[in-house]
Amino acid sequence: MTHFVSDFEALLVYHGPSSTRSPATSMKQRCLQWIVMLAAILLLSLPAGAASTRYRGDVYLLRGFGDVFSEGLDQLGADFAKAGVPFKVVSHGNWRGVATTIIANQKKSGPKPVVLIGHSLGANNAIRVAQRLKTAGIKVTWLVTLAATAPPLVPSNVRKVTNHYFSHGGWGAVVHPGPGFRGRLENIDHAGKAEIGHFNLDQQPAIQRALLRRVKAIVRP
């Protein structure tokens, strides 16, 4: 911005050698100055960060019980922030508010990608957000559930769901499609991996890398 303003000021001051300027050239110079000045005014009047906060869709990360057992979602949020991905990390208990906000955003700006990622109780309620969005006719681009404890059926408005669970030796259930579901459903079993359990599934580097890569592609500028 500093360089732009300096260049702008220089353009306003410089008129060229007076002995070589014709009336037509002088008029063109003044017109150019006014155009640049108006552009500068418009640019400087934009709110700070306006370009970076342009609405590109809704990405929500829903924490589990007590908001203290989903540290991996906070880590993932930090990675999203570094990558310029718009997101919000919320308590699983706020799922109704999440649905209400997404519905309002989509009504205002038109269809945009929706990504829902939840851990533990947050995984259960991420599905409930998707169910609420279905009643408003809104598609969910990607639903990710990590160690869901009692997952509802996945509604038909979800295009893709990826569920990380434990068939044994861990706490996390399989998810099932609801009536009319035509999307893609993946149930990824982490049973038998001694280092992975319910409380750290969301912290696994491989899972976080996959989430970051895919979400960046979904909500790219």
Write structural notes for this entry.
This protein has about 220 residues and is an alpha/beta fold. The protein has two domains: about 1-45; about 60-220, 3-Layer(aba) Sandwich (Rossmann fold). About 40% of the residues lie in helices and about 15% in strands. It contains six helices and six strands; from the N terminus they run H-H-E-H-E-H-E-H-E-E-E-H. It has a six-stranded parallel β-sheet, sandwiched between helices. Helix 1 (about 1-15) packs antiparallel against helix 2. It is globular and about 80 Å long. The two termini are about 20 Å apart. Mean pLDDT is about 85; it is low at about 1-20 and about 40-50.
State which percent range the strand residues make up: 5-15%
Radius of gyration (CA) equals 25 Å
Any idea of the CATH class of the largest domain?
Answer: Alpha Beta
The total tally of domains equals: 2
Spatial strand arrangement across the major sheet: 2-1-3-4-5-6
Intertermini distance: 22 Å
CATH T-level topology of the largest domain: Rossmann fold
Q: Which structural class matches the secondary elements?
A: alpha/beta
Biggest sheet character: 6 strands, parallel
- CATH homologous group name of the largest domain: Alpha/Beta hydrolase fold, catalytic domain
Low-confidence spans: pLDDT under 50, at least 5 residues? 1-19, 39-52
Q: What is the mean predicted local confidence, pLDDT?
A: 84
Helix tally?
Answer: 6
Number of strands: 6
For the record, the CATH architecture of the largest domain stands as 3-Layer(aba) Sandwich
**Shape summary:** globular
Q: What letter string, H or E per element, gives the SSE order?
A: HHEHEHEHEEEH
Keywords: Membrane, Transmembrane, Transmembrane helix
Domain Thioesterase: 94-151
Pfam family, one: Thioesterase
Organism: Mesorhizobium marinum
